[in-house]
Amino acid sequence: MLKVALLIIDIQEDFLPPNGTLVVPNGREVIEQITKLCDLSKYPWLAVAVTQDWHPPNHTSFASQHGVEPFTDVEFEHPLEEKNACTGKVKTKVQTVWPDHCVQGTFGASIEKSIMETYYKLPEELPKIVVQKGCLHDREYYLCFSDVWKLHKTDLEDFLLKNDINHVVCVGLAYDFCVLNSAIDSQMSGFSTAVLKNCCRSVYQDKIAETEKLYGDAGVALFESIDEYLTSLKK
Ligand SMILES: [Zn+2]
Asked: What is the pTM assigned to this prediction?
């Protein structure tokens, strides 16, 4: 039997137009849809998790820490200097760096107001959690489950396991970064995973086909809307 959690990813002011520092185009359009999803009389969620990018001011994903322009690719070394056994060299990853965003305690880091109001109105008995990620300054967190090096786990996986969840439905920002990587990680962690496309927006809207190939290769199910998803459950 499917035991489903709703995962609401990074609906934070810095990702939202018009004033965010790292705006996902049209990101604000998903808010109304997502608040409607929190109606438990209509939808099958047994738990709800809301994620929050939550960086210290010197976070390594900020271009300002590297003296380069935002959206540049930078080579990062493994935070614990783990070495490749064959080459003896410290492992590296090339990642895009961003404008400063979601700095702990700032307005930009706050979860959009109506999302939080909806979250607080969820039934008291429903398991729910706000999962903060990106707290350690020396590593990027595209995924909600852990940092990109999989060294530091957030509270999300334990929360899902504790509540016997085996299926996760993802919505939020951005479709081609945090939602993508979180959905793939969720699927690889043993939760069958779906994404509702009309509740997500992308940073790079011209690369949707590439993004969706990554979802498909990982076995994540994509649905246009909650209605299409619910129909699939009846089949
Ligand atoms: Zn971030």
From this structure: 0.93
